[in-house]
Amino acid sequence: YPTWKRTLTRRAREAQMKRFCKAQAIQRRLEEIEVTFRELEQQGIKLEKLLRDEEGTPADQKTQWMNQLLYLVQKKNSLMSEESDLMIAVQELKLEEQQWQLDQKLRSYMNKEESLKTPEDRVAEQEILVQLLEVVNKRNVLIHIQEEKRLSEL
């Protein structure tokens, strides 16, 4: 077994493990965001009730509650933005994994001696190449979306 094949296999496993760890971290963060959403929602409900129910409350107290409510809305909006970024990252990881798998299939066909390839092998190789191009285009679209989002936030 040549050294370069072992090296490629090891690197592929490392890249796959890295994607897996990243996916786990994203999933944990999404769960944290969900919990925080619920907490913010509960705090918002309490503040709204206070604002509606307390007619004899001093104006400065109402202003303070209104400011707290606005802060909660800002925090929720920032979490929603982070959540959408994470969802894009999840899609990117899926496409990256799909691209890696297609790449491996394509390499197996390309490593085959040209004289030994059957017509079915050639057709399969072309289909994989088309699928690979589609995945690359989808990843490009995601990168474009991220860039537009980043520019709009600036």
UniProtKB/TrEMBL annotation:
Q: Could you tell me the keywords of this UniProt record? A: Coiled coil, Membrane, Monooxygenase, Oxidoreductase
Example GO molecular function:
monooxygenase activity
Coiled coil regions, renumbered to chain: 23-50
The family database entries (InterPro entries) matched by this protein are listed as: bMERB_dom, F-actin_Monoox_Mical
**Where found?**
Membrane
Can you tell which superkingdom this protein's organism belongs to? Eukaryota
Main localization category:
membrane
- Put simply, this protein is called MICA1 monooxygenase
Whose protein is this, by species? Chordeiles acutipennis
